[in-house]
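User: Let's play a game. I give you a shape written as tokens, and you guess the letters that built it. Ready? Here's round one.
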């Protein structure tokens, strides 16, 4: 069989076995088996950390986040073990990551409710920095491992799709339960405190998620040979600048995920008066979550990657902007539509139905495009720098995010948000602020993120040619390594 035939065979062959698929499905499920959506409420309602001090914590942690990205990215790229380049770090993450997150949710046991308790503030800062470091390990290692688990891009897509379908069946359960618990506690329907609700759910989800995450690091295999060259952080930055697909991803993410604003659940709790209302909103669209995966192959065959990427990621932004316009009618105050629970529930239901109908596109395409961009580096430059490249991408995004995110708490306080106001008792000005920040800002910045995507062109024939040429390059490199090793053995003899 000639190299050309082998190259085409690589593009169609299935490498990932059933055991690895199951392991990744469990790992993917672990990422959503949490109550992280409610972290803001945890800080506000349970820990009661002063909002200005929370701003300082976020800012310092943001600086550390940028630093540890560069350190860990370079470290990972220099790693070469018999278990692979990324697997050891996923395995190393499992225990400390789980332990630190458990400590996160258990922290109310160690401190009182004083918002200005400096011991609590110092503890929270150190804990946040430690969690950020292990989180970076997981993020880089996971994406890098997925890019190397198979040389066949369609094989990766099958893996992503299987994981998303299975995860979609139960990934919202922790958030649904937590949302219901918040309402039951606030309305005094059950005899447990908000502290115990967060502690119980947080630790349960953390331990369960940690167990699920462990299997992928054990049973996965890295099948793409790593570059012998070692690259530093500056070279990784240069690689991104000269890697058009990766640069487009980075710029689009920076713009469209601009993290100004607060979590949407603050709007549900403090304005609409019900956290579990979010659980009602997702019911009509729920069947579409799974159904969307049944037609993704037909859709991908008919439309370009660029078109689907834009449509999948930004349809929700268009609808959200429309909801903001409608919600702002009748002005600020109790008569404003944004405070009308029935109308807002219907509008958000419609948005969720459209979102769930395109869920497969929104979930699969970004992953596929990112791993394609990592392979593009090897195709264009002849080497792989996943660790440094992903760390640089992460650092740029986090730097941008943390500069803005660090001011969220300060902005909330400036808008009149009170930690002592009680359930649903914020001022009318603050309520509208929460509505605007949860609808207008994400929609506006999200739509701006379309602009970089318009220049994406790694699809169709170009993408197929890239993978066929990559397969030949890898085979030729492997043959060269084998010849080199044989010559070395003969020389030693």
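Assistant: Ready! My guess for every position:
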């Amino acid at each position: 069989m000639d190299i050309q035939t082998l190259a085409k065979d690589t593009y169609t062959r299935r490498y990932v076995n059933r055991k690895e698929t199951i392991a990744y499905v469990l790992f993917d499920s672990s990422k959503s088996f949490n109550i992280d959506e409610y972290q803001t409420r945890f800080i506000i309602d349970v820990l009661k950390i002063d909002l200005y001090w929370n701003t300082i914590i976020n800012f310092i942690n943001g600086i550390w986040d940028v630093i540890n990205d560069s350190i860990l990215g370079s470290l990972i790229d220099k790693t070469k073990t018999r278990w692979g380049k990324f697997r050891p770090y996923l395995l190393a993450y499992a225990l400390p990551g789980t332990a630190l997150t458990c400590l996160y949710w258990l922290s109310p046991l160690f401190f009182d409710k004083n918002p200005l308790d400096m011991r609590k503030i110092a503890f929270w800062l150190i804990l946040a920095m430690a969690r950020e470091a292990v989180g970076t390990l997981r993020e880089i290692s996971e994406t890098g491992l997925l890019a190397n688990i198979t040389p066949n891009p369609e094989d990766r897509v099958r893996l992503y799709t299987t994981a998303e379908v299975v995860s979609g069946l139960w990934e919202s359960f922790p958030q649904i339960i937590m949302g219901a618990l918040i309402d039951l506690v606030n309305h005094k329907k059950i005899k447990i405190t908000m502290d115990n609700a967060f502690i119980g759910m947080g630790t349960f989800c953390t331990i369960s998620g940690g167990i699920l995450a462990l299997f992928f690091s054990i049973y996965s295999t890295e099948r793409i040979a790593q570059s012998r060259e070692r690259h530093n952080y500056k070279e990784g930055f240069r690689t991104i600048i000269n890697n058009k697909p990766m640069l487009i991803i980075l710029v689009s993410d920076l713009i469209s995920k601009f993290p100004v604003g607060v979590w949407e659940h603050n709007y549900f709790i403090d304005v609409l008066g019900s956290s579990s209302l979010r659980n009602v909103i997702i019911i009509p669209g729920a069947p579409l979550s799974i159904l969307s995966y049944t037609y993704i192959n037909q859709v991908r065959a008919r439309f370009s990657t660029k078109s689907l990427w834009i449509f999948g990621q930004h349809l929700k932004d268009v609808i959200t902007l429309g909801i903001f316009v409608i919600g702002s009618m009748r002005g600020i105050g109790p008569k404003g539509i944004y405070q009308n629970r029935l109308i807002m529930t219907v509008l958000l239901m419609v948005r969720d139905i459209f979102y769930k109908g395109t869920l497969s596109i929104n979930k699969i395409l970004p992953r596929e495009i990112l791993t394609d961009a990592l392979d593009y580096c090897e195709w264009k430059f002849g080497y792989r720098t996943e660790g440094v490249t992903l760390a640089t991408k992460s650092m740029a995004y986090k730097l941008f995010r943390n500069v803005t995110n660090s001011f969220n708490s300060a902005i909330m306080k400036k808008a009149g948000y009170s930690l002592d106001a009680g359930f649903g008792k914020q001022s009318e000005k603050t309520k509208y602020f929460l509505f605007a920040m949860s609808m207008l800002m994400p929609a506006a910045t999200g739509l701006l993120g379309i602009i970089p995507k318009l220049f994406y062109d790694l699809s169709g024939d170009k993408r197929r040619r890239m993978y066929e040429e990559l397969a030949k390059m890898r085979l030729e490199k492997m043959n060269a390594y084998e010849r080199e090793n044989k010559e070395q053995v003969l020389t030693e003899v």
